[in-house]
Amino acid sequence: MKAPAGAAGVRRHSGARSVARKLALQALYRWQLNEGPWQDLVAEFGDADDMARADAAYFRALVEGVWRARAELDARLATFADRAPQQLDPIEHAALLIGLYELGYLAEVPYRVAINEAVSLARRFGATDGHKFVNAVLDRAARVLRPDEH
Q: Collapsing DSSP states into helix, strand and coil, what is residue 13?
């Protein structure tokens, strides 16, 4: 897969990327409840308290990338999950979209990092056992999207 515009050149400290993923999860959760342009999400969450500790370029790349690739990501998600994306809890869905985006579009992110970060987000913000579902789905996805790494 080719990365959408804005995804290139977004390397920085992993802690700052973790914060960026957390903010992206929150933005994508909000977007599922009230759809709008990715630019609005970036502007809305750009003033978040945690943004000072986040990799802002990576946050933008995740939000824009997922927003642009949503149809493809959901189509892929449907092949790896046992239920339709529309039936997923919004937190788990957002974590899966981020993980699938990183696995499919951001080759510089090791597959284990993409999976672990998404699982961590689901564990922190999702339903009780939602992280187990996220882990299983992304593990299946990594076997297909990153066969040489897995």
A: coil
Number of domains in the chain: 1
> What pLDDT, in 10s, does the model give residues 8-25?
444 445 799 999 999 999
What is the rounded distance in angstroms from the CA atom of residue 87 to the CA atom of residue 89?
Answer: 7
Q: What is the DSSP letter of 3?
A: P
Are 77 and 100 spatial neighbours (Cβ–Cβ below 8 Å)?
yes
Q: What is the pLDDT of residues 36-86, one digit of tens each?
A: 888 888 887 787 888 888 898 999 999 999 999 999 999 999 999 999 999
Q: What share of the chain is helix, strand, coil (3-state, %, to 5)?
A: 75, 0, 25
In a domain, 1, yes or no: no
Q: What is the CATH number of the domain that holds 30?
A: 1.10.940.10
From residue 62, give the alpha-carbon distance in Å to each of 29, 51, 84.
13, 14, 22
